[in-house]
Design brief:
CATH topology: TIM Barrel
CATH class: Alpha Beta
Order of helices and strands: EEHHEHHEHHEHHEHEH
Bound molecules: phosphoenolpyruvate
Radius of gyration: 17 Å
Strand order of the largest sheet: 2-1-7-6-5-4-3
Structural class: alpha/beta
Strand content: 5-15%
Helix content: 25-40%
Number of helices: 10
Largest sheet: 7 strands, parallel
Length: 256
């Protein structure tokens, strides 16, 4: 992590209930002095997180403010509720809802327009990884976002984050799934940073997602181009999530 970038640890609860104790006084889901923390609950639990003072956002939001889109909510509605963040382009949404790079870019813009901080998720699948197509895929997925960032000189990096999530490392309920090695993740993060517009390279937070947990967070977060984590499975286990946030806090102190 570069000392200029504050780490962000984000928990993606996916389609699971809020873990017991999430709103306790010593909840690890609240931001700390040198670490930003956010959670992405189901729509049903957004209000509870907001009421508990936990920074949060929807796992998906439509760009249109209102309309005939059964089952969806909009970025505007999430902002009005009091959300601060929004996920865009999570691999579950790309796979199960067939969201395209162009649709995801529209969500990204709508989040920013509504003063939400979008976390743009992208990453190669196992077959793309095995076929040696990682860089090609990442460039394709990032291109619409790079175009948006290039055209917006006034869009400062505190208004969005990126999350590199190699789909082959995402646990999907398997606690033994190995994460990318910290060396491999660092290499990809550095490459991603080099693809960003020059004026955004040093300031953009690039989170790592894919089986980050208490046992590997310190090593991943120690990498110079890894600026936090998007955490699935471990964010449902309060004690494990706490370890990740504590590792981030230590890292921030060492760098601060
Ligand atoms: C995710 O799906 O965003 C994710 C990173 O999951 P996990 O941490 O469980 O691999």
């Amino acid at each position: 992590m570069n000392p200029k970038r504050k780490l962000l640890i984000a928990g993606n609860w996916k389609m699971n209930p809020a873990p017991a104790g999430f709103d306790a006084d010593d909840s690890p889901f609240r931001s700390r002095k040198n670490v930003d923390v956010a959670v992405f609950p189901t729509f049903l639990d957004l209000r509870r997180c907001i009421d508990a003072g936990i920074p949060c956002g929807p796992q998906f939001g439509r760009p249109e403010p209102t309309g005939a889109f059964t089952g969806d909510i909009s970025m505007a509605m999430a902002a009005k509720l009091g959300c601060q963040y929004a996920l865009c382009g999570h691999s579950d949404r790309r796979q199960f809802h067939h969201e395209t790079d162009e649709e995801i870019a529209k969500q990204f813009v709508a989040a920013i327009d509504n003063n939400l901080i979008p976390i743009f998720c992208f990453g190669e699948t196992e077959s793309e990884h095995d076929a040696g197509k990682t860089i090609e895929v990442l460039k394709r997925q990032l291109q619409p976002i790079i175009t948006i960032l290039t055209g917006s000189l006034s869009l400062t990096a505190d208004r969005f984050s990126l999350a590199y999530e190699p789909v082959w490392a995402i646990s999907r309920g398997d606690p033994n799934k190995p994460a990318a090695t910290s060396k491999d993740a660092q290499e990809i993060h550095a490459l991603i940073r080099s693809l960003l517009p020059k004026d955004k390279q040093a300031s953009t937070r690039i989170l790592y997602g894919g089986s980050m947990k208490g046992s590997n967070a310190a090593e991943l977060l120690a990498q110079p181009d890894i600026d936090g984590g998007l955490v699935g499975g471990a964010s449902l286990k309060i004690d494990d999530f706490r370890k990740i946030v504590e590792a981030a806090e230590k890292n921030g102190q060492n760098n601060g």
